[in-house]
Amino acid sequence: MLRRLAPRSMFKGRMPSSSAADASEVLGEQSGSVAVGLLNRPNKLNSLNENMIVRLQELYQRWETDSNVVAVILKGNGRAFCAGGDVASVCELGRQGNLRLPRFHDNLMVLTSTGRQHQASGFFYKEYVLNYYLATFKKPHVAFLNGVVMGGGNGVSVHGKYRVATEKTLFAMPETALGLHPDVGASYFLSRLDGHLGEYLGLTGERLDGADMLNIGLATHYVPSERLASLESELRSVSSPESVEETLGKFSGRPPVQGKSCLHRLQVINACFSGDTVEGILHALERERGDGDDEWLDKATSKLKGASPTSLKITLASIRRGRQESLAECLAREYRMSFRAVSAKYSGDFYEGCRAILIDKDNRPRWDPSKLEGVSREVVEGYFAALGDGEGEELQLPVGERGTGARSRARI
Questions:
Q1: pTM of the predicted model, to two decimals?
Q2: 183 carries an active-site annotation
């Protein structure tokens, strides 16, 4: 039996305790044999801040060792399950921690890490530890994806055993438009989708609905939103892990894939997004023009051309590497990538993307470099390199005690 890991051993440094105010952002209760977590920040679409991450970690550690808890349900308050991590706050922390960043659009060169900058990267550290903990959670975890589930929202759902989609589900990993990269273990779960769909979703940030998620294995079940309350009521009375799956199966159906779904275009996606480089992918999309699907091709091309060139190149390399790595290895590498994004060692695109999309909202980011050819192979490799002196410690995960997180999650 694995020993219970104390909060301090799972987090970098001392883990802050949740105050009463912090705890209100993630509500936890136990009813019958099931514990229920509620992401309770509806005015921010339940986007995860550091307090919520710490609170979830505390709850999961408590529920995992509680013999009265058979399973855990996680859901969101309002019209979102979770719209991602609160990257605007992370951006501000990193910006304040760097005297070379008086304005978001400054040209960034070599930068010096400071306390606030490490505080910003510490957000990702705690988030990825939570993602890993969920993937190695010893009890059935059921996420109700009833609404928006993007970025970090996938990190607290996809790695769990069961993911319930509805007609309101809206999935995306939109990080390349923010100057970041698909993280929270996305290089693991995207790389395990059939063909090259993972590259397409990670590079373009394309959205999926609940039927799409079910058909490709990102969701394990599909339940109409009007039946979620009844499903939850029955789950609260389960007596064993096996009865959790039986109950989910009783409520689940298989809706048809909508006509405009990208899943109808898997042949061209596989043909184009199998390219060795982002430039090659763009050229392949151009070659497909004239076959009657130019509107979709234009949309895919436009998304790529609007994203950060640096983000595109490191994302493609990340997903390709992820195919050969365990979840723990993917998270450790993604932490290096996020650290370099926050420190702006090679590019300030993370700050510029946050400015353009989340803060000023002019949707006109000025990427630097502005073209794909300006992002060298050496820069891409630099994002994956081990952290050096002054950059802090690597992501530490207790794989010897909890495993690598590589076990199958349905089709993933």
A1: 0.90
A2: yes
